[in-house]
Amino acid sequence: MGTSVVSGIGTGLVISTGSNTYIRTILSKLGKVQPPDAFDKGVQFISYTLICIMLVAVPVLILSTYLVSKNLSESIIFGICVAVVLTPQMLPLIVNTNLARGAVAMARNRCIVKSISAIQHMGAMDILCIDKTGTLTMDRFIMVHHLDIWGFPSETVLKFAFLNSYFKTALKGPVDDAILAHTYTNGYRFHASAWRKLDEFPFDFTRRRISVVIEAIDMDVRYVVTKGAFEEVLGVSAYMECANGRVITSTLTIDERLRLLQMSEEMNNDGLVVLAVAIRKIPKATDMLLLKNTSIESDMTFLGLISFFDPPKDSAKYALYQLAERGISPKILTGDSLSLTIKVCKEVGIATTHTTTGADLDVLDETEFHATVNRATIFARLTPTQKLHVVQSLQKHGNHVVGFLGDGINDSLALDAANVGISVDSGANIAKKSADIILLEKDLNVLVFGVEHGRLTYGNTMKYIKLSLVANFSSAMSLLVVTICMQIEPLSPRQLLTQNFIYSLGQIAIPWDKMGDGYTKTPQIWSWKELPIFMLWNGSICSIFDISMFIFVRLYYGVGNVASSFFKTAWFVESLVMQTLIIHMIRTTKISFLQDMSAWPVSVSTLIVIAVAVVIPYTLLGQMMGLTQLPVSYFGFLLVLFVGYFSFGQVAKRIYIKVHGRWL
Fold first, then answer.
1. What is this structure's pTM?
2. Are residues 130 and 147 in the same domain?
């Protein structure tokens, strides 16, 4: 329920339940169904497009064949076969094989993919939101200073910081480890056994501090010891303690507060994490329940500050450069101070021109908020909800595909909302539950590898999707033209289904194809709106060459052969080879076979399908299907036909790229 209990007994006061609790506000926003992204919309469009083609082509083909054969049952069977052929049966297999191969490859690089669709989203990702601690830095804190209010070393400050970390039980982290390690290794003896903990007020992302209530076993004294973010602790302090140990009871003046803030700012500018320590002395006779009902973290005495160095990762700068080379812009979303974040970002090469804080974002109206989010690269002092709003603004108003890398409870909302949520194996359970990808190493170089695989996956998926649209559209167009104009059945149902089966098997190798040089250097965001133009442009070209084969057979071999098994065999071979070769036209922007060869699995698959198409008419299976042997002259014509198709298609490809700016 969001509360950490280790041992002992206590009295609980219920102030809210169920959906009214704070923890529920976070959990209620997790796991909600995300709206369809560009990939989902594209798959839906393909389905609707092919359904529309079926609704138009199938009834026309059934009617046309019935007018010729006068056999309604055969005409309906032929129409059903056409509908089956127009269905991209291999789409689920190709897409999932693509994604599975990417998941396996990333697993080899110590990256566990929980949702395989996230791989495709990584290929489209153009903004990566990152938490500073542990990502840009080592997340291994080293204690540097323990200073009083005047900047002198203070054992009192270290003593109470040590007691706070020693008795703290909830969410212990690297800061507490650093305090304890510094105390023990430098020979300090603060005798924690002489103290007893009475209560604890855990850290949260609004207060940004942790307090423990302790009492001395052999003295009549109790303390509330508070450690946390400098500004928040200073804000609840009313007094300060001088270097000589004398407590000044006067209220902290504005000048003193500004001086202390300036001291903290200077240390942040040096790359140090700064926390404040304050105490409140309370009599032993004080009723703890009554004290809780007021405000236990108030009127405190400010002791001083403690600072830590969290060194930047050596690999972070190069990894960020690699991501930038691939068109991914980093944005830092952190709860740390702005000056410290700027210092770290400068060391790893992130632009610090445009920055903002959570407090600044809260006072902006909606328009200014979205403009600031789109412009800024560093967001400091953010709450979990503010991180969520930043991610949502980038998605909805910036039209970006957003990745988020975080490992804490405060990152869970943003992880869940991002297109790609990325956490680490050492992260909080709720963060790992919300993430799509788990890194076994908190290293940005793993993400560079993942981005490349995501874009490779996207490219191979788009090859099959566009291939399906072009091949199915051209087949439907060619069948309609021949059936309507010549009043004949181009292929029998058995031949049509056999051709489709062989063609589909040949496409299994597509996930093993490679992409051209430079393809993985830019984000691949799918715009489904371009698919109709792509289908019409390239499908029409294929249909022209299909119909050219029909014209050649009619003129060269004679009209009488058009309606015979000879024509069906010629159509069977030409159509199967054409559909198989389309992938080589679509897979690259370069000249197929000359400037860019496909990967060997695709090339071997193509050769096997072409060989089967050529040989099958000469086999017993071909005779059973009603196919007949073809003369050598016909294959000479096919060679000329396909050379013409690739030559004309290459010109059409260049025109399309020049007009629309992209191919796949």
1. 0.76
2. no
What is the band of 293 on the pLDDT scale with cuts at 50, 70, 90? very low
CA atoms 252, 256, 258, 261: torsion sign? negative
Residue 269 domain-assigned?
A: yes
Q: Do 120 and 78 fall within a single domain?
A: no
191 vs 470: CA distance, rounded Å:
78
| Contact (Cβ atoms closer than 8 angstroms) between residue 108 and residue 441 | no
Helix axes 444-486, 117-124, angle to 10 degrees: 100
End-to-end CA distance of the chain: 49
Is the domain of 585 the same as that of 543? yes
Which tokens hold the place of 559?
Answer: 């009209």
Q: What share of the chain is helix, strand, coil (3-state, %, to 5)?
A: 55, 15, 30
Distance between CA 481 and CA 69 in Å, rounded? Answer: 17
Q: Do 443 and 453 belong together in one domain? A: no
Residue 306 scores a pLDDT above 90? yes
Positive or negative: CA dihedral 252, 258, 259, 264:
positive
Q: Give pLDDT tens digits for 169-186.
A: 877 788 999 999 999 999
Sign of CA dihedral 311, 314, 315, 320: positive
- Quick count: other Cβ atoms within 10 Å of Cβ 102? 27
Rounded to whole angstroms, the Cα distance separating 116 from 122 reads 10
**Domain end call among 309, 337, 354:** 309
- How far apart (Å, rounded) are the C-alpha atoms in residues 279 and 222? 10
CA angle 341, 347, 353 (to 5 degrees): 60
Local structure of residue 488 (DSSP, 8 states): S
Is 290 domain-assigned? yes
Number of domains in the chain: 3
The verdict on 590 and 574 lying in the same domain is yes
CA dihedral 271, 381, 26, 329 (to 10 degrees): -70
Query: Is the pLDDT assigned to residue 288 strictly greater than 80?
Result: no
Active site residues: 131
Domain-terminating residue out of 418, 447, 476: 447
- Asked if residue 93 belongs to a domain, the reply is no
- Residue 202 CA to residue 444 CA, distance in Å, equals 31
Q: How many CA atoms lie within 13 A of 92 on its CB side?
A: 2
| Domain containing residue 126: CATH number | 3.40.50.1000
Is the separation of the CB atoms in 339 and 357 below 8 Å? no
pLDDT score for 372: 93
DSSP assigned state of 150: T
CA dist., res. 564 & res. 567, Å (int): 6
Same domain? For 320 and 305 the reply is no
Q: Is residue 7 part of a domain?
A: no
Determine the Cα–Cα distance for residues 239 and 374; give it in Å rounded to an integer: 42
Count of Cβ atoms closer than 10 Å to residue 454 Cβ: 27
Confidence category of residue 500, pLDDT binned at 50, 70, 90: confident
Q: Helix, strand, or coil here: 592?
A: strand
Question: Which residues make Cβ contacts (< 8 Å) with residue 258, sequence separation at least 6?
Answer: none
Domain span holding position 75: 38-86+449-660
